[in-house]
Amino acid sequence: MSFAQANVRMEDASIPKVPVAAPGEDPAIDLVHLARQTDGDDVLEAELLEMFDRQSAKSLQRFVAADLCGRARADLAHRLRGSALAVGAWRVAAAALAVENENEAAAEGAREAPATLEALAASVDEARQTIAALRP
After folding, report:
1. What global pTM score does this model have?
2. CA nearest neighbour of 121 among 86, 91, 82, 79
3. Less Cβ crowding at N or C end of the chain, within 10 Å?
4. Is 69 helix (H, G, I), strand (E, B) or coil?
5. Each residue's pLDDT tens digit, 15-70
6. Residues 6+ apart with CB under 8 A from 77
7. What is the pLDDT of residues 80-135, one digit of tens each?
8. Contacts with 29 (C-beta within 8 Å, 6 or more apart), sequence order
9. Are 55 and 127 in contact (CB under 8 A)?
């Protein structure tokens, strides 16, 4: 069963329960988008989600632990955004874009606001929880 089917047929008890977005809100992971990206290949979907799970965790660790300049932080956010777009993690992508833009401005002398990094961390955590809920 594909991840897209798990998102659509939540009433089936054999399907893993994933967090459902509020009306008008994007889900943490758009499983329909992911299924389209992988042409419904369940194995590829799982592989991409696992790679995104690992990469997003490592990226957050680097933001917190590494002493990176604004340009390096913007590049890291840019890579995370690209990965998020590939798997349908729209909120992660939006938060990563905000961090990217903020760090590009910081490279030019503007102050960085910790709220954008906190929003990124929250969206990544939500996406990772959704991925964990999808594991067999």
Report:
1. 0.79
2. 91
3. C
4. coil
5. 444 445 544 577 899 999 999 999 999 999 999 999 999 999 999 999 887 778 88
6. 59, 96, 97, 99, 100, 103, 120
7. 999 999 999 999 999 999 999 988 877 665 556 678 889 999 999 999 999 999 98
8. 3, 18, 49, 87, 88, 89, 127, 130, 131, 134
9. no
Query: Quick one: tokens of 59?
Result: 């990226």
Residues contacting 61, CB < 8 A, separation 6+: none
Name the average pLDDT for the chain. 82
Q: Which residues contact 96 (CB under 8 A, 6 or more apart)?
A: 77, 78, 80, 81, 84, 120
Q: What is the DSSP letter of 22?
A: P
Contact predicate 127/48, CB 8 Å: no
Q: The domain spanning residue 94 has which CATH number?
A: 1.20.120.160
Do 5 and 136 meet the contact criterion of CB atoms below 8 Å apart? no
Closest CA to 48 of 57, 40, 38, 60: 38
Q: Which residue range is the domain that position 37 belongs to?
A: 3-134
**Number of residues that make up the chain:** 136
Q: Quick one: angle between helices 90-107 and 70-87, nearest 10?
A: 160
